[in-house]
Amino acid sequence: MHPEAEALLVRLSLAPHPEGGYYRETWRSATRVATPRGARSALTVVDYLLPAGSFSAFHRIRADEVWSHGAGDAIELHTVDPAGRHEVARLGPDDVPGHRSHAVVPAGWWQAARPLGDRYGLASCSVAPGFEFEDLELATPGDLLGLRPDLGDLVRTLARPPG
User: Is residue 163 assigned to a domain?
Assistant: First the structure.
């Protein structure tokens, strides 16, 4: 791991996330909202670190998520909507051509991310209604290959095998 990523890991008190990378929740709204899955916080926010060579595996959650670039290398965010449309956003300083400061992943869309440099990508991820682990579904390669067989190499790279 790059020394800058190691320093952030310690300074931000980050822990491993099941989808890959490291995180720490920094905000959970006290306001509660009703959802079909029960009451949720109105909003949650995490710091999320992807060291070089790591990735956030394809997953989906039952809430809208906003990824905002915070520091380090650009982050490549892949999304696949329920109809199978694949999009790629490059999150980074918005003064760099082709980069965006943030991207929205609607509820129920598959998403995966990886840093594009040799150090790390740091993002802030905001979820509304608030994130709960029971609302997280990790994809198997078969989940996405059935929808988009042409994305085989990407799916095999950014999805965790079953088990």
Answer: no
**DSSP readout, 141-158?**
HHHHHTT-GGGHHHHHHH
pLDDT tens-digit series, residues 123-156: 999 999 999 999 999 999 999 999 999 999 999 9
Q: What is the pLDDT of residues 20-65, one digit of tens each?
A: 999 999 999 999 999 999 999 999 999 999 999 999 999 999 999 9
Please enumerate in sequence order all residues whose Cβ is within 8 A of that of 10, keeping only pairs 6 or more positions apart, or say none: none
Our count of domains for the chain comes to 1
Question: What domain range is 104 assigned to?
Answer: 3-158
Give the CATH number, domain containing residue 108.
2.60.120.10
φ/ψ (deg, to 5) at 82: -60, -25
For residues 23-33, b (16+ Cβ closer than 10 Å) or e, as one string? beeeeeeeeee
> Is residue 125 one of the residues assigned to a domain?
yes
- Model-wide pTM > 0.70: yes
Whether residue 72 is contained in a domain is answered as: yes
* CA–CA distance, 127 with 111 (Å, rounded to integer): 14
Residues in the chain: 163
Residue 68 contacts by C-beta under 8 Å, 6 or more apart in sequence?
91, 101, 102, 123, 124, 125, 126
